[in-house]
Q: What sequence folds into this?
């Protein structure tokens, strides 16, 4: 899918549906928060949520005192809805409207979080572009926390074909610079009570 088509798709989704009308809605991003704590992040750790959309992760990070939070997404509408929810606190966040595969990172981060964005990259060139940005933007010693549909998960999300991963296949895709340090299987329950199997892997940027 071309970048413009992708953007049009996501703009249309976020302009037509309310926050809790999308399959990926999570009232409480508990697993992400647990893994962010587990890798030793502190309030001073710069963190970026890739494809963060309208997720409530940002609210929770601010509540925990995180001082350097960035949310990147293709959809301006999604980010505007997160900003509206946060009110004055939106000013404490760095918002980036960009396609991660063409984005030029201007700083580095200790934590790269991605829940259900990477799995939309079904084209090899796009995956390579994503990994190049991950290498550039994640500090050596920093951690990438990447959730995708698992090998036994759905084949589509938001009407689009996705790639399913296990921790090993995700690790092979990211390459040798990223050491797998943990992974969790997770069943996400959609707002209409369907179950979706996710894997959430944690990688350390080792070289
Ligand atoms: C399934 S939603 C997940 C949203 C959020 N991470 C969450 O957990 O609620 C996927 C998100 O990735 C964004 N996205 C998809 N492809 C992207 C890309 N190439 N670059 C940046 N964002 C992208 C979409 O706009 C959407 O907000």
A:
């Amino acid at each position: 899918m071309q970048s413009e088509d992708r953007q049009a798709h996501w703009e249309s989704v976020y302009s037509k549906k309310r926050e809790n009308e999308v399959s990926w809605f999570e009232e409480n991003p508990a697993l992400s928060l647990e893994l962010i704590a587990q890798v030793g992040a502190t309030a001073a750790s710069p963190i970026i949520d890739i494809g963060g959309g309208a997720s409530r992760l940002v609210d929770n990070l601010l509540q925990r005192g995180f001082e350097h939070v960035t949310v990147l997404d293709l959809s301006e509408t999604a980010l505007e809805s997160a900003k509206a929810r946060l009110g004055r606190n939106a000013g404490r966040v760095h918002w980036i409207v960009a396609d991660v595969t063409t984005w030029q990172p201007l700083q580095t981060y200790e934590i790269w979080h991605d829940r259900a964005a990477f799995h939309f990259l079904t084209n090899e060139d796009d995956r390579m572009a994503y990994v190049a940005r991950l290498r550039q933007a994640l500090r050596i010693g920093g951690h990438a926390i990447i959730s995708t549909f698992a090998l036994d998960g759905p084949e589509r999300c938001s009407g689009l074909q996705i790639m399913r991963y296990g921790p090993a296949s995700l690790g092979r895709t990211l390459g040798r610079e990223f050491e797998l340090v943990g992974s969790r299987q997770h069943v996400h329950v959609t707002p209409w009570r369907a179950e979706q199997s996710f894997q959430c892997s944690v990688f350390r940027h080792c070289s």
